[in-house]
Amino acid sequence: RMTPAWRFVARRRLLARAALACLAAGAGAHDAARASSPDDTMLGGPSSYVPEARLASKRGEPLLLFFSLEGCVYCEALRAEQLRHVHARRETLGVRLVEMRIDDDRPIPGLEPARSPRQVAAAMKVRIAPTLLFLHGEREVAERLVGYSNQDFYGAYLDERIATARAASAARGPSR
């Protein structure tokens, strides 16, 4: 027979093991979710680059490339405060928006020759995250926005650049 003191110790050990098991399961699930879908939090992501670029080209719309970096608090703030609504309203705004991470070495699906987001960023001389480019085909059609400190003036700059990029893309027409 167990004395009350031993029951207390046994119950405490059981609870401690259960708590550790829950923590381990939760951490594993979090890591698995993060590993299986890194693009879920991104706006489009590298897998949407080729289709969005083709659509922008066909429609004569600017392609906005948002270069971010994993763990960058400024990138997360810019995504949440400014770009998520642009991505959601891209049809109405007449723009396409794709986010790529400058530290991602995985090949972009469908891009020939095969290149990674890191290589695309290097080719476009993007060295700081966050950076937002406004493209028509391979050309920049509005001044890029580099960095993000707060939302006070950024929205006005973003609207101005989108308008400039749309006008330039419309003037050039669909790319071939």
Structure explained in plain terms:
The protein has 176 residues and is an alpha+beta fold. The model is unreliable at 27-39 (pLDDT under 50). A four-stranded mixed sheet has the order 2-1-3-4, sandwiched between helices. The protein has six helices and four strands, in the order H-H-E-H-H-E-H-E-E-H.
Which labels suit this protein?
about 55% helix, alpha+beta, 6 helices, 4 strands, single chain, 4-stranded mixed beta sheet, elongated, about 180 residues
Biggest sheet record = 4 strands, mixed
Number of β-strand runs: 4
Mean pLDDT: 84
Rg result: 23 Å
Low-confidence stretches: 27-39
In what range is the share of β-strand residues?
5-15%
Shape: elongated
Encode the helix/strand succession as letters: HHEHHEHEEH
The percent range for helix content is 40-55%
